[in-house]
Write a structure and sequence with these properties.
This protein is mainly β and 1904 residues long. The chain has 21 helices and 115 strands. 11% of the residues lie in helices and 35% in strands. The strands form 30 sheets. Strands 91, 92, 93, 94, 97, 106, 107, 109, 110, 111, 112, 113, 114 and 115 form a 14-stranded mixed beta sheet that branches. Strands 42, 44, 45, 46, 47, 48, 49, 50, 52 and 54 form a ten-stranded mixed beta sheet that branches. Strands 10-9-8-11-12-13 form a six-stranded mixed beta sheet, sandwiched between helices. Helix 5 runs antiparallel to helix 7 and helix 8 (233-242) runs parallel beside helix 10. The two termini are 50 Å apart. The relative contact order is 0.06.
């Protein structure tokens, strides 16, 4: 245990260091490498320039890199110290706020950072200005009366708060204009009885220190009034702030403004009055007349909240909102946007206003924030505590009367908006900023500026320098050539030597530019691939620097000019060594325990006899402790006993003492018996103070403990008695052998026996059907006959797949003994079973689980490579004799396969002893299993005649259709019973479905007016016959007998029958429901279950039916996006189509746009049932000649029951000519037909097929049929392409019949098609173009989620439209759930439905502070809901910014004056406009929302849609910035995972899965989709590999025969396959090459790519085409070569470079960690394929970008085909160059293995292929639902072609998100349980390494 902990700590330390340097900043000096010396130094503070004339490296680089390249002298910018201009010490005697220092000048190099110490002081009772601003609307009459009576209390308050205080008073109501004020003359005079006329704001009492005068003036005031509930207090606050002289604010005092009201507030453009958008913005100036009244109230708008925040801050005013309960929540939210503000709760009559002010003042003094005002854009400021810890906003606490301290960290940016800071405007890089606490008037001014250094050498150029051949000036080591001269040294004339390529040839080179570039004018080489080649002659390859662990420069440096330039903290030829000694620190903090030297981050220990740890500490744990490791040495040195050689290797000396130290004062106290004299010796061991004395200090007690004289005389007597007993037993045996009838009598003589017994299995054979299995075990009874007295323990074993013969391919597979596998273990605890233990979440089960883990782990830790047990569960087994009420513990242990015998022995030993450490078990029962065998024991207690054996069945995906297991009773180790029936056979038969039942769609929508919802149920026939399925409807929001009549029953399908319809009666709305405005969407579900006669459930076993109260509107759109006509066409006919709700009439208007000759418009009316109408334009009816032109037609103003679809505009193109482009063919064919009346094809070419018709049969299918042309066509060619794409890119389908089924199309997408027939002569004439649109399908995931944290409790979430809308988006669902750090829900989820698809944004209020939330968004179209996109946000890590209050209108409000601290969209809602007595429920928060309720609010980003279904839509992504972007890339999918909780409400995480929610009683029902690797049987064959790379001619082309040396020489092996068997083991396979003579054998060569001895393996058997290599090093790249031999000699080699990546032991980088994941890697192949199950027939494929692609990546090609044939290969083009790319593959078939290939398409051609094999396997049994379980088996393969074949593919674009790059892995939680890996992932990133035989479990959710 100690050794493991030690290694773990070292590993974690090394990991921390690696991570530290992983995130080292990129080399920003490279930007200026080709620029001037000054521009280099201005690039950053660490940049240096080399002015050496003879230097040939990059002149601008980091200083350490410059020196590494051999620069003798470098130029660097000098940092300038800060200058303190004014620092007056704080004087506590002054009753004023003070800050020290007062003024400082600081200059910064770009990127430089400085820290300043600041002192602040706030007096106990400093000067105070208190201004009371009160609402004078009529509802505040009693409040005013109470305030008039509080003169004394106010006087006492200000005296308590300050010795120098003033008090003032102002009043406000609202703008004197409609609708805020009643403008009738009588109401303008006295709006209420005894009231003043209405007004906006008036300063009544200027700030004064005369409280008596204040009270007298206040008595004169009367109340006023207005109309609406919100008041115009914001106008009053702004005027009180900016009219400083009129109000009386003093410069040296603290400013408090008490704002008292009981109503909400108006604000800028709040949308609640008719002035919204009419009045200009508030100008933020003072507009008070001599009476103190605000004069511009009706001339300008209210100020916005950001404006108030800024203006109050600029004037050092702190607001205190004293409000009543009616409006308390509004002002509480409002206060969060001010740096310092308080909210106090007033009583209804404001009688407690004095107490509120006092409490607020004390709270303000207790919390302070620091802010930097007027900060230039080039600087960033942070405020720290004295311990240099970042302090959150508002959490500084500077006690009054004491000096407080803080630190300010100021950093200068290197770039401003991608422009070097030295090239930016002067005011952006220098200025005076003011730093002050928010409660202070005083501040600390910093004159900050950016220092832009220049080089002195630029001022003194050397004219006509000799180095420049007299043709240029030498400036800072570089030549600046004169006109007419070129070259680095100006030695090339533009006219004479321009074309001389000899200048491009370097020493010992033959080709110009090393054959890697182009020789330009005057010998300058321009490398063809600058990212790979560099140098004067392109002689350096950036990929050929030394490697470490397979990585170039260890991924810790850059390859520059042939050598590694290491990042800071790393060194070595390959940057393989860290400069840190953190990994060499021992447990005491020393380096290598003083017994070694730290080199390259590892301790090099001195040689000793005792094994050392990685930090040179004695590793006594490996020898079972200190005592066990030293006993032999001590015995030899102290007593000269034992072996003499023990003394020679002892690394310590001993000291004999009379008395030993106490045990608690030494490292260990030891006692052992000396076998030589039977005496016991004692000693202690402790750490030495002097390392030279040895590794331990040993003190030995001089005196041994020897026993007294023994009774040796008893030995002869005992021996005699034993011999006598043996003789007696021998005689009894002889007697029984002679007379068997008396055997029973003889046994009866023994005290433990009565008669003989027999045990054996009850049955000979079991026959099981896999589809009916409900368990992975079979309880097989074993019986006992004979006398039941006494106990018998029977050992048994079971072997899998015994039906396979010795020559069976699977039987020849030898398992990898080092592979870590799972060992299921079972023992019976000495504890009675209770039902509560069967519930895993119970406290008793959890406690027992921990007890089991602690004790069992302690037992199995002696097994090398064993991991901790997991998945512990408890059960009770029936028919287990007298012990059947005891608890059986099942658990799983992960360990190497070879340890199986040791685990069995250790388990049996502990079971027979009755305990696993302190865990008591019942002897006689245990089970230990692997994936192919098991063994165990059962016990027959006295009186028991039958016991069940719990036999594992080893059910696996790759099992044969009929497999056998053999269970054998081995022996009886305890008892006298003999084994009778020893063997039992178990046969398991796989069955295949005969039919598949499914709904056609996952969702339907019917109108109540239809009266009946007819729901079709389809049947796919595999084996024809009669079959049945059960259907049943169930309530969701629709209720039985209220909205519909529930149905239930069985459907019987006759042979050949494929579809039936279930009618569901829909009921009319009740009168009460009809009057509701916000009615819930009514839905119910229908389920299929219990398929019979061998059938099973298919893709949609459940459908959701939505009952629409109104019919869905018709959708009208142009049939085509563009139309083409000729100037000779008599008319222009433009079709308009209509979909949905065809039973009622509808109309739409049309008009022309951008037309030159005419301006037309008119109506288009559709009658009931009509689906298409034409707009006919006669060009001859309009003046002017008919000529070519382009114009548009637009649809607008649809009728009330209709809407306009996406294609609302069509483009009309009129060309010059007789016919459209395709018509010459038609004209030609017409002439041919006229010349040939029989219709025979002239000249052999076939005419165009007739009457082509296309009809969409599904979201991805189009059925096309036509009439055959005359003649005898051999077949037909169907060309189809997406509308708008060029016809030359069409897909071509070859069919033999006059019909075709186009599959794998895009949903809701326009396609165009042509058909031609062909015969032996060739292809005939094409038909005219046919257009068809596919049906809708559920939408894809929404775009990436973006967050704008408006306050600690308010978050705005927005998302992009799905990249694949697959129809018209109609709604979105947003679910947000509080989660903990482990991604588990911490509360109920809240759900909001947004019915307006253009409003892809939601603002959520009243969130919990510092709480993490998971957000999920999905889209809906007419088909149903699509998958969720999710993301998590931790509010505790988000910055606090003064944004707008979260109450949002339609438009963004931007504070143009706010500066960078206020950037972003500031949003409000109409919620706050309700009266004080209205609802105070926030917009989204709380528990009162309806699950299917509507969100009627307006949001930002109203659109952002592209053309067709394939366009990328808006995907704003900015989690820490409030600047949103609309448009751009759509989100690509990512990895997916999920998690569930034990509560009744379960939610999930994961981005890629197609998840549907089953809302039943507030809960969510989940069903699993399991991904299982095919390597579970761990063989060394290709079907059971861990990871593979394939190198070969995957294009299928034959090699060039002319390239061979001789006809008999073998060609290159056409396929080279690498299969990872472990971290150090590899299988190399190949395919036989082409050769005209027999192959005699093969040769395999391999060696480390960075050097080393080459190893050779000769294969003499030509039938063998694979070898296994087990001596490789982990993380090392190897070069493999394979060639074949014939009689003519050796053929060409096939080469491949491969690396096995795995985790290694930190103390030994060449030793893999036991059980660690491993995968194959090649730098130019895409990353390992990750498969995510989306549904039973679709999955998402994710891969990482190649680390070293063969060029710039243009996109990827994904191909999919069935592994064993049976379907066409499907290809997809995926664009993007992101760190991780995803693609969704639909229309797969369950239980069919598929092969997927991913290949990068680069500027250099196609790169290597990554290949994976996957199966979505159904595991439902019988009547169980399809949701029960889905499994996915995967195999990763890579293909690396040597030839590039181009493919014509359907263009399928899935843009990956550009904002996430490699390394941005979000939270991942996983637990390893004996090879089982369960992951919970927040983002779309999945761990790429899999443990052998692992099962990755991912959850899928289905919508009810």
């Amino acid at each position: 245990m100690g050794r493991w902990v030690l290694h773990l700590s070292v590993g974690l330390g090394l990991l921390a260091i690696l991570l530290t340097f992983c995130y080292a900043e990129v080399n920003y000096c490279f930007m200026a490498r080709d620029k001037t010396c000054s521009e280099c130094l201005q690039a950053g503070k660490d940049c240096a320039y080399c002015p050496d004339e003879n230097f040939d490296g990059p002149r601008c680089d980091l200083s350490e890199n410059i020196r590494a390249h051999g620069c003798s002298a470098t130029l660097r910018a000098t940092k300038i110290k800060s200058i303190m201009k004014n620092r007056t010490q704080i004087n506590k005697r002054f009753s004023q706020s003070q800050v020290s220092p007062q003024l400082m000048s600081m200059s910064f190099l770009p990127g430089e950072e400085k820290v300043v110490d600041v002192e602040v002081f706030s007096p106990l009772k400093g000067p105070l200005d208190l201004y009371i601003l009160m609402d004078f609307s009529n509802s505040m009459a009693d409040d005013l009366d109470n305030l008039k009576k509080m003169g004394n209390k106010l006087s006492q308050l200000i005296g308590k708060l300050s010795n120098d205080a003033t008090i003032g008073f102002g009043k406000f109501v609202d703008k004197v204009i409609e609708p805020q004020t009643d403008m009738r003359p009588s109401k303008l005079k006295t709006p209420w009885p005894n009231s003043d006329p209405p007004f906006s704001f008036q300063n009544v009492i200027k700030l004064t220190n005369d409280v008596g005068e204040f009270t007298r003036e206040l008595q004169k005031e009367m109340i006023s009034g207005n109309l609406d509930a919100p008041e115009g207090g914001f106008d009053a606050i702004l005027q009180a702030a900016v009219c400083g002289n009129r109000i009386g604010w003093r410069s040296h005092s603290a400013h408090l403004l008490v704002f008292s009201t009981e109503s909400a507030f108006h604000y800028e453009a709040d949308g609640a009055n008719v002035l919204s958008g009419i009045l200009p913005r508030n100008d933020e100036r003072c507009h008070l007349d001599p009476e103190g009244k605000y004069t511009e109230d009706i001339s300008q708008d209210y100020p916005s909240i950001p404006t108030l925040v800024r203006v109050l801050g600029e004037n050092n005013i702190i607001p205190i909102f004293a409000v009543t309960n009616h409006s308390y929540t509004y002002y509480q939210k409002l206060s969060e946007y001010f740096p310092i503000a308080e909210v106090g709760l007033l009583q209804e009559d404001s009688s407690n206003i004095v107490q509120v002010m006092e409490t607020a003042f004390e709270s303000i003094r207790s919390k302070t924030s620091i802010q930097a005002e007027d900060k230039p854009k080039a600087f960033k400021a942070q405020f720290l505590s004295t311990k240099e810890e970042l302090v959150e906003y508002g959490l500084f606490n500077f006690p009054p009367g004491a000096i407080g301290n803080f630190k300010m960290r100021l950093k200068a940016d290197r770039m401003i908006d991608e422009t070097p800071v030295c090239q930016s405007n002067q005011d952006e890089k220098e200025g005076t900023m003011r730093v002050k606490p928010t409660t202070f008037n005083k501040g600390f001014n910093i004159e900050a500026s950016i220092l832009c250094p220049t080089c002195e050498c630029e001022k003194t150029p050397v004219p006509n320098s000799a180095k420049c051949h007299g043709n240029g000036d030498m400036i800072c080591g570089k030549c600046k050539c004169s006109p007419g001269w070129l070259g680095a040294f100006c030695n090339c004339s533009e006219t004479i030597s321009a074309q001389d390529t000899s200048r491009c040839i370097g020493p010992n080179m033959k080709e110009p530019c090393s054959g890697r570039g182009e020789c330009k004018l005057c010998g300058g080489c321009v490398c063809s691939n600058p990212d790979q080649y560099e140098g004067q002659y392109c002689q350096y390859d950036k990929t050929q620097c030394p490697r470490s662990g397979g990585f170039l420069c260890n991924d810790r440096g850059s390859c520059i000019m042939g050598s590694c330039a290491c990042k800071k903290g790393w060194e070595g030829n390959a940057c393989e060594c860290t400069n840190s000694n953190q990994t060499c620190l021992d447990n005491k903090g020393g380096v290598c325990n003083g017994l070694g030297e730290c080199k390259c981050g590892l301790c090099q220990c001195k040689e000793t006899a005792v094994e050392m740890t990685s930090t040179c500490e004695p590793n006594f744990q490996a020898q079972l402790g200190v005592c066990e490791g030293t006993r032999d040495c001590v015995r030899c040195k102290a007593w000269k006993t034992g072996k003499n050689e023990d003394c020679k290797n002892c690394p310590f000396e001993i000291v004999m003492v009379d008395e030993l130290k106490e045990a608690d004062k030494v490292r260990d106290s030891c006692s052992f018996r000396d076998e030589d004299d039977d005496c016991t010796y004692h000693y202690t061991a402790e750490d030495p103070t002097d390392k030279a004395a040895g590794i331990l200090k040993i003190q030995v007690l001089k005196k041994k403990d020897c026993p007294a004289a023994s009774l040796l005389w008893l030995l002869p007597l005992l021996l005699f008695l034993l011999l006598l007993l043996a003789l007696l037993l021998l005689c009894c045996w002889k007697y029984c052998a002679c007379c068997k009838t008396c055997c029973q009598s003889c046994l009866a003589l023994l005290p433990c026996c009565r008669k003989g017994r027999m045990v054996g299995f009850k049955e000979d054979e079991y026959l099981l059907r896999q589809s009916l299995l409900t368990s992975d075990h079979l309880d097989t009874p074993m019986v006992r006959t004979g006398p039941p007295k006494g106990t018998d323990v029977v050992r048994w074993k079971v072997t899998d797949n015994v039906h396979r013969g010795p020559n069976h391919p699977q039987a020849l597979i030898k398992p990898n003994p080092k592979e870590t596998i799972q060992f299921p273990l079972s023992v019976r605890l000495n504890r009675l079973f209770s039902d509560i233990l069967s519930r895993p979440e119970s406290r008793e089960a959890d406690q027992l689980r921990k007890e089991v883990a602690d004790n069992v782990n302690e037992v199995y830790k002696q097994i090398p490579g064993a991991q901790k047990v997991q998945k512990t569960a408890f059960r009770m087994q029936r028919n287990a004799g007298k012990r059947q009420d005891y608890t059986i513990m099942d658990t799983v242990l992960s360990a190497p396969r070879s340890s199986y015998p040791d685990i069995v022995k250790l388990t049996e030993k502990n079971v027979q002893s009755g305990s696993f450490q302190d865990l008591k078990v019942v002897p006689g029962y245990y089970t230990v299993a692997t994936d192919r065998e098991a063994s165990g024991a059962i016990e027959f207690q006295e009186g028991v005649e039958s016991v069940d054996v719990h036999v594992p069945l080893f059910v696996k995906e790759e099992d044969d259709d009929k497999k056998q297991l053999l269970v054998e009773a081995v022996d009886v180790p305890l008892g006298i019973a003999e084994i009778g029936k020893r063997l039992v056979n178990i046969t398991i038969i796989k069955e295949h479905a005969t039919s598949v039942f499914s709904f056609l769609q996952p969702a339907y929508t019917y109108s109540r007016q239809d009266g009946v919802a007819n729901i079709p149920i389809s049947r796919e026939i595999i084996e024809d016959g009669r079959t049945q399925v059960t259907y049943r409807s169930r309530d969701l929001t629709a209720k039985d007998k209220k909205d519909y009549i529930t149905v239930e029953g069985d459907l019987t399908y006759a042979p050949g029958e494929t579809e039936k319809t279930v009618p569901v009666r829909l009921l009319e709305l009740s009168e009460k429901d009809g009057l509701l405005e916000d009615k819930q969407v009514k839905q119910f579900v229908m389920d299929l279950s219990n398929p019979r006669q061998g059938a099973k459930l298919g893709r949609y076993p459940r459908t959701t039916v939505t009952i629409a109260d109104q019919p869905e509107p018709s959708v009208m759109a142009f049939k085509k996006g563009s139309q083409s006509f000729s100037t000779f066409d008599p008319t222009y006919t433009i079709p308009v189509v209509r979909t949905r709700n065809l039973d009622s009439p509808a109309s739409v208007k049309w008009r022309t746009k951008k037309a030159q000759r005419f301006d037309l418009s008119g109506p288009l009316k559709f009658g009931p049932g009509e689906t298409e109408k034409n707009i006919v334009i006669d060009p001859k009816n309009h003046p002017g000649p008919i000529q070519p032109e382009n114009f548009q037609l637009e649809l607008f103003d649809p009728s009330s029951n209709a809407s306009i679809g996406e294609r609302k505009i069509t483009h009309v193109n009129v060309t010059d000519g007789a016919l459209p482009p395709s018509s010459p063919e038609i004209s030609h064919m017409t002439q041919k037909r006229a010349a040939n009346p029989k219709g025979l094809p002239p000249g052999g070419l076939l005419l165009a097929p007739g009457n082509p018709e296309a009809k969409a049969t599904g979201p991805r299918n189009i059925h096309l049929n036509w009439d055959p042309p005359p003649g005898n066509p051999m077949g037909y060619k169907v060309k189809y392409w997406i509308y708008g794409d060029p016809e030359k890119d069409a897909q071509v389908l070859d069919v033999k019949t006059p019909q075709a089924e186009l599959t794998n199309l895009y949903p809701y997408c326009d396609y165009e098609m042509r058909v031609c027939a062909y015969n032996s002569i060739g292809e005939g004439y094409n038909t005219d173009m046919i257009a068809c649109q596919t049906l809708e399908d559920v939408p894809g995931e929404p775009g990436r989620l973006a967050f704008n944290v408006i306050s600690p409790t308010v978050t705005q979430v927005s998302w992009g439209e799905p990249a694949e809308t697959n129809g018209n988006i109609t709604a979105y669902d947003v679910i947000y759930t509080p989660i903990d750090d482990n991604l588990k829900p911490q509360g109920a989820a809240k759900k909001v439905k947004i019915d307006n698809p253009k409003k892809r944004m939601l603002l959520i209020e009243n969130l919990q502070k510092s709480q993490s939330y998971q957000y999920k968004v999905r889209a809906k179209n007419s088909v149903g809901w699509g998958p969720f996109r999710d993301a998590s946000l931790n509010l505790a890590t988000q910055p606090t910014r003064p944004m707008s209050i979260p109450i949002i209108p339609d438009i963004p409000i931007v504070d143009a004056e706010g500066g960078e601290d206020y950037e972003g969209y500031l949003m409000y809602s109409n919620e706050v406009m309700k009266s004080p007595g209205g609802s105070k429920t926030p917009s989204v928060s709380g528990d009162e929302f309806a699950m299917n309720g509507k969100w009627e609010q307006n949001f930002l980003f109203p659109g952002g849609s592209g053309t067709r279904n394939l366009s990328a839509s808006s995907s704003p992504m900015s989690t820490l910035s409030s600047n949103y972007r609309v448009g751009g890339g759509g989100g690509g999918g990512g990895g997916s995972s999920s998690f569930t909780t034990e509560t009744s409400t379960t939610y999930m995480s994961g981005a890629g899965g197609s998840r549907r929610l089953d809302m039943i009683g507030g809960g969510v029902h989940t069903s699993d989709v399991i991904m299982r690797k095919r390597s579970e049987n761990r063989g060394y064959t290709e079907d059971n590999i861990r990871d593979s790379i394939v190198m070969g001619d995957v294009s299928g082309k034959f090699p060039d025969m002319d390239a061979r040396l001789s006809p008999g020489i073998p060609d290159t092996p056409s396929r080279l396959v690498f299969s990872a068997l472990g971290p150090t083991a590899l299988k190399v396979s190949w395919q036989e090459p082409l050769c005209e003579k027999s192959i005699l054998g093969y040769c395999v060569l391999y060696q480390l790519i960075n050097g080393g001895d080459a190893k050779r393996i000769n294969v003499t058997n030509p039938a063998e085409n694979s070898v296994i290599i087990q001596d490789l090093l982990p993380n090392q790249s190897y070069l493999f070569k394979v060639k074949a031999q014939s009689q003519e000699g050796w053929g060409q080699e096939r080469e491949g470079v491969i690396t096995i990546e795995s985790a290694v032991d930190p103390s030994s980088p060449l030793s893999p960690m036991p059980g660690s994941p491993f995968t194959l890697s090649t730098p130019s192949a895409p990353g390992p394929l990750i498969f995510t199950a989306l549904s039973p027939d679709s999955l998402q494929l994710t891969w990482e970008k190649p680390r070293k692609p063969l060029g710039d990546i243009l996109g990827y090609v994904v191909t999919c085909e069935q592994l064993h044939g049976g379907s066409d290969t499907r290809s997809f083009q995926v664009s993007g160059d992101s760190a991780e790319t995803s693609h969704t593959v639909p229309n797969l078939t369950e239980n069919v293995p598929y092969k997927f290939k991913v290949q990068a398409r680069t500027t250099q051609g196609f790169g290597p292929e990554r290949e994976g094999i996957i199966t979505i396997e159904s595991q439902d049994g019988g009547a169980m639902s399809q949701y029960n379980s889905q499994s996915m088996s995967m195999r990763d393969v890579f293909q690396m072609p040597t030839e590039v074949s181009t493919r014509t593919n359907i263009s399928h674009t899935m843009l990956d998100d550009p904002y996430f790059s490699e390394g941005m892995m979000m939270t991942t939680q996983h637990s390893e349980t004996s090879g089982m890996v369960t992951r919970q992932i927040t983002k779309e990133v999945v761990e790429r390494g899999f443990i052998g035989g692992t099962t990755v479990t991912k959850k899928m959710f289905y919508e009810s």
